[in-house]
Fold this sequence. Notes:
20 helices
Amino acid sequence: xxxxxxxxxxxxxxxxxxxxxxxxxxxxxxxxxxxxxxxxxxxxxxxxxxxxxxxxxxxxxxxxxxxxxxxxxxxxxxxxxxxxxxxxxxxxxxxxxxxxxxxxxxxxxxxxxxxxxxxxxxxxxxxxxxxxxxxxxxxxxxxxxxxxxxxxxxxxxxxxxxxxxxxxxxxxxxxxxxxxxxxxxxxxxxxxxxxxxxxxxxxxxxxxxxxxxxxxxxxxxxxxxxxxxxxxxxxxxxxxxxxxxxxxxxxxxxxxxxxxxxxxxxxxxxxxxxxxxxxxxxxxxxxxxxxxxxxxxxxxxxxxxxxxxxxxxxxxxxxxxxxxxxxxxxxxxxxxxxxxxxxxxxxxxxxxxxxxxxxxxxxxxxxxxxxxxxxxxxxxxxxxxxxxxxxxxxxxxxxxxxxxxxxxxxxxxxxxxxxxxxxxxxxxxxxxxxxxxxxxxxxxxxxxxxxxxxxxxxxxxxxxxxxxxxxxxxxxxxxxxxxxxxxxxxxxxxxxxxxxxxxxxxxxxxxxxxx
Length: 515
């Protein structure tokens, strides 16, 4: 499989495939012809005495200085070198590759004025698996993700450090030479075009949406398992009740839960006792479609924003279809920053309700007949007591991450760039939140599976086909109830099964498609 970059917008799936699976890319010939045509126009403008921003001037607060032709290569090279000013830990490989693909996509629109050799070199770097080293701090999310993109542009010039496909750190010059890639000598406009985009924050949004598609369905699985493990009632998930409040995400979540607990022997055996003694389940169970459904709807809105951005050509100045070279504000990251922050709120709340469901299993006053902390011998054994502590610590961090980055702004560039989006920061904390959500859901599933096993005492108290399939998949690598044992590796194993989609796949194999 290959992905064509050029005519037509990339999809979120395209971004994920290149970023995480190293899918090769090819450049659309028609788009390359448009790149060449626009470049010819830029070279004509470069010879004119009238200053053109980004072509024959300085940048940002220095835009009023006209740069003579003999200094313009130095101008572009100096721009990239000075802007490659990141600091902190290295950014993950998939985020950098997503950023690179999205910058290449904009360059291929023909609206940036670069030469064809620039896009060809960028594509060669991606296809060779060469990943520039980018650092955590350096982008304010306005004028684009400047420092992260500059570190990538620096590698195109054969400068700075990169990592090879196997993760080896090496000087960019050596990596390019080994791959047969000639370092770029930048011409007018090209340095600016390479660094002026919202590609980092958009890349993180695309990766997050792919992860959430799996994690939201996983949350429905966790809810169904908890409902069964606590011998609750599925009646509240009836379709007609959901239609009284017609949010689409809510209906989809309730439908998943109904499917997953259908034909549950555990719930059937507990029905009469529930009606007599409990009447209602707690909010964390009863209202799960309302919460998880709202997360679905939030992700759907974020997908709309991502798709609009994937169809965009972001640069400043931009070369319009009629040949004008025009300064603009399309590099401002507000549209992406807002949804990154919105998702961080939704992710924190989804983790929070998962932790509350887990906690109910551990308290004898609320777990409907199970041992304290699901321990084999309470007092001698602690069961899942501290697993819930781990959840609580993660959820607390996710709540802190839910504080929006996009409401902050620190002026830069001598007050020329006096309002910035902080979208890169919003994306960075959201990536950490996604990791945390996966871990919280994994602990709920591990705990619920233990409870289901403890309920499965005879042929009538059997789990539903859907939930039972998930428990069975867990039991392939994680042992069932027993005396206390080293718990961290078991949590790590379930986290891996959550993250790679194995548990969703197991449920689907048993019950068919899930939303």
